[in-house]
Amino acid sequence: MLPYLLVSGLTTGSLYALVAMGLVVVYKATTVVNFAHGELFMVGGFLAYTFHVLLKLGYVVSLVLAVAAALVLGLVTERLAYRPLMRAPAISVVLAAVGFSFVLKGAARQIWGGLGDYIPFPPLVATPAITMGGLIIVPQQLVVLAGALVCMGIFTVFFTSTRAGKMMQATAENAKAARLVGIRVERVYAFTWGVGAATGAAAAVLMAPLTFVYPDVGSPLLVKAFAAAVLGGFGSLPGAVLGGFSIGLIENLAGGYINTSFTDISAFLVIMLVLIVRPTGFFGPRAVRRI
Amino acid sequence: MRTLRIVLMIVVALLVASPAPPAAAQGVTADEIKIGALGALTGPGYLYGRLIMNGAEVVYNEVNKAGGVNGRKIVLVREDDRCDAASAIAAAKKLIFQHQVFMLHGGGCSNASIAARPEIEKANIPWVVFASVADEVTLPTAPYIFSTALAASIESAAQLEFALQRGAKKVAVISMRDAWGRARYNPLMETFKRKGVTPVADEEMSPDANDATPQVLRLRQANPDAVMIVLYPKAAAVYMRDAAKLGFKPLQIGQSALGDLLAFRDQVAIPNALERFYTISHVRYTPDDPEMERWRGLLEKYFPGDRMSVYNIMGIASANVVVEVLKRAGRDLTRDRVRDELNKLKDFNTNIYPGVITCTPTDHQCHKTPAFMQLTGDKVKTVGVTTVTR
């Protein structure tokens, strides 16, 4: 049971990590928690469904198109819900994001889920589970886990090695200094929202074959991603990844070895304990008080 | 002159003493009976609202075409409870006080119906529940509230009975423990106790879960012959997908929330995953049954684009009960007469429910005969009918 719970936990955790990465990217650059991130994830799933199931495009092509479309949607979100309120109090920006999340959910219900259906997404791999000496291997999960790791790798390379990624990092570190050296900060903000949405969409496309796409899928995922980001230290990308994997593993192990009623709450119990001991999470900056 | 005065006085006295014709009841005119339909018209709960109402409306339209009930046409007014407690209270109030309906026919999601019950009970308005299964909707018995849906306690008893009839010795449970799940899980556990059976595993799953791996692995370890599934369609589909992926194939027995087997198959979307899956249906027929041909045609006529489902059939069956009771209540229609006729309804055969409908003044859960369905290839077939006695 342990090996399978570990693989399953890592798979789910990798998806939490991807969603958390999107949340952290936007937060780092703009100090705004994007409460519409769950719905951007949801739209990514529906876009993949449209490309792959309705338009019968290949899975990888659908993934790329869904991620690209989500990037554009992220840019639009920034333009409509964030930029006009850039100088407004933080609460206004949060409310705008929440409002935008409802708009996206309503739109998805109208376009894809008006009947409230949970839409199944075809499995990526048709091969059934293989049992080898008591060890159960589900190829589908391994493919999703590998896909999530590849996506994380691509986003990491983007942030650390590309010009756009470096400009985003510079803006996140110090927007004023970035502006002084000629970086067009507003454009970077917009691009950050786009990249955040794209990571969410990548997670949604990978997750879809394991579960369903439906208009309400975003909210519970956002809660898990938020928890992962907090556990990792809000603002830290490696922290978000570690937090995501930790939550996936804790959920599965607690459900498997303690009781299935612990599946949902176990991760939050651990987070509470971790934050009591280390309020800044795994990689969050230590709070320094100047006297 | 004096004689004339005496005659006039006698006439006036007779007129005063004779009983007045019953005042027209609210929602009833010379040629119309207004019925309020309460249920989810939007959101994931639309199955238990809009689809059932569509089925009921087909019946009402046909009755109206044939001249109505005792000369009155039925007008159905719909309000959306969105499967949500607060919306259900508002919807019930709107139907009763704003639309001024004569009676209610509806109630899909149990939580919404439970929330609306006090308001409806206070208004002394007849309410025929068409889909809400939680026992709290009909218990304790309220004078004007009756149900043509199978109660959760009846379904749970039938579920275990069916497993035992199929030779299961070791029985496990996977359930949701929210209000909906509790309404079914608690009676199921009571039935286990009554039958002297101890579940070999008792696992929980959240309605939002996207992964049932721990649940399936724990159930697999207990090696049951049968698993009682007390889950909403989405969670049940996740569970069945993971069970199929992990090669876990005991007898799997669902409840009426999974009554639309074709839709459920589409959601599970793994070939042969439902090979050993059975579920409860409130009605005897499957949507593609030849006996349903006439209703299928009518549904397509009145609601183009609707693919007939068991939920439409439930509406058709329940509306037949409402029409019968209105007929029996006669032309001088009052709410009390409808209540009295419902209390007297005995062995009424709709030819759609698996058994007869019987209400008594002390038992308003009028439907006690679940049918069990299985998917074979592309066809849903009825594999058994059980009448639950208490």
Sum this structure up briefly.
The complex is a heterodimer of chains A (291) and B (390). With 291 residues, chain A is mainly alpha-helical. Chain A has a domain at 17-216.
Structure description:
The complex is a heterodimer of chains A (291) and B (390). Chain A is mainly alpha-helical and 291 residues long. Chain A has a domain at 17-216. Chain A is 71% helix and 3% strand. Chain A has helices spanning 2-30, 37-54, 59-82, 90-111, 139-161, 163-173, 175-180, 185-207, 218-232, 237-258, 263-277, and strands at residues 119-120, 130-132, 135-137, 212-213. In chain A, strand 2 (130-132) and strand 3 (135-137) form a beta hairpin. In chain A, helix 1 runs parallel beside helix 5, helix 2 runs antiparallel to helix 3 and helix 9 (218-232) crosses helix 10 (237-258). The model of chain A has no long low-confidence stretch (mean pLDDT 84). Chain B is of the alpha/beta class and 390 residues long. Chain B has 2 domains: 28-151 and 289-368, Rossmann fold; 154-281 and 373-385, Rossmann fold (3-Layer(aba) Sandwich), CATH 3.40.50.2300. The longest helix of chain B is centred in the last third of the chain and has 20 residues, at 310-329. Chain B is globular and about 95 Å long. Chains A and B meet through helix 1 and helix 10 of A and helix 8, helix 9 and helix 10 of B.
